[in-house]
Amino acid sequence: MSKKVKSFKCKIDYFPKYNIYLNVNHLDEGDYTLKIVYKNRVIKKTTFKK
Predict the structure, then answer these.
(1) Helix or strand or coil: residue 34?
(2) Collapsing DSSP states into helix, strand and coil, what is residue 35?
(3) Which of 13, 30, 33, 35 is the most exposed place for a label (fewest CB within 10 A)?
(4) Average pLDDT for residues 26-41, to the nearest whole number?
């Protein structure tokens, strides 16, 4: 059984502060990968389990 990969993308033009909050309350149970991209390169990759 293959695992379906869901990808969500968001582009934010302006950050009012230097903090980014990710609320994971409404995510389904499972393993997630968060990638932070700068100039089309992944600069930070982290995984977490809910």
Answers:
(1) strand
(2) strand
(3) 13
(4) 89
